[in-house]
Specification:
six-stranded mixed beta sheet; seven-stranded mixed beta sheet; 8 helices; alpha+beta; single chain
Length: 283
């Protein structure tokens, strides 16, 4: 049986000698996770809700790296330093992310956590594939016509994304589960390339394969149009798209006209990465 150890790079892992995540077979354990950014700084100081959200996002990111997600979680353990003060805020975040999954859960009060600014810490156990028992319906992907007063417009507005530039040939796909709009994505065709952007999945549907279904919808339509590659630009989801089959692409390999398109021009900074999905094995 294969064992996989995954680290996040935070200094405590090397100092103490532990992994962020261990996967053995289908069993997955995620270590106690605090609200830290990539530089090890506390996120959401003084805000138990914001810290819980950060913890769950970090846990979801770790699970996704091994082909899992929050929908596979079967147990959560929550450690707080003041249960009377913070339990409602912590519970609200837990319900928003895991209310459809309904794992078993314990909330415990402790004297303190590893950083004095931490109010909460979470650890989870998951079983790969368990989420399929939670969501039996596959996301339904449909093409969308842009309307400024539509549910699609409200979804983009809720995450501060701009309206699609329909004059630039941007097309939109929507994802539904159980009749509810749960995600969307935009893309535009530019000769032999397609550029994808504005991938959104609502919080309650994360870990249910919605993002993958939307990306596959774009790839399928690009392939039908004779496109050789699908490009996107990202600043913080490189690992997620790598899991979906995308690989980093040097900017020098992208035509200047394509870099100036509305989908890529907004990511002209050193922090962003252009990624490519090659159709037919050619980039």
């Amino acid at each position: 049986m294969r064992r996989l150890n995954l680290g996040s790079g935070l200094i405590w892992e090397s100092e103490v000698g532990y992994s962020r995540l261990v996967k053995v077979g289908r069993q997955i354990a995620v270590a106690g996770t605090g609200a830290f950014d990539e530089q090890g700084r506390v996120v959401g100081a003084g805000d138990a809700y914001a810290q819980t959200v950060c913890c769950l996002e970090r846990i979801d990111d770790a699970l996704r790296q091994v082909g899992s997600g929050l929908s596979d979680v079967v147990r959560t353990r929550i450690y707080v330093i003041d249960i009377d003060r913070d339990r409602d805020a912590v519970a609200r975040a837990h319900q928003e992310y895991l209310g459809q999954v309904l794992p078993v859960c314990s909330m415990l009060q402790v004297t303190r956590l590893i950083d004095p600014a931490l109010l909460v810490e979470l650890e989870v156990d998951a079983i790969e594939g368990a989420g399929r028992a939670v969501v039996s319906e596959r996301p339904r992907i449909v093409e969308a016509r842009w309307d400024t007063g539509s549910d699609l417009a409200r979804m983009l507005e809720s995450v501060d994304l701009p309206e699609p530039d329909v004059d630039d040939g941007v097309q939109m796909l929507k994802a539904y589960v159980g009749g509810e709009l749960v995600g969307c994505v935009g893309y535009a065709l530019h000769g032999e390339s397609a550029v994808m952007h504005s991938l959104v999945v609502i919080r309650e549907a994360k870990g249910e394969g919605v993002g993958r279904a939307l990306v596959q919808g774009v790839i399928a339509r690009a392939s039908e149009a004779g496109v050789r590659r699908v490009l996107l630009a990202t600043t913080d989801t490189t690992r997620y798209f790598s899991y979906l089959g995308f690989s980093p692409l040097e900017r020098e390999e992208v035509p200047a006209a394509l870099l100036e398109s509305s989908e890529l021009a907004a990511y002209d900074d050193p922090e962003s990465t252009i990624m490519c999905y090659a159709l037919g094995g050619r980039r």
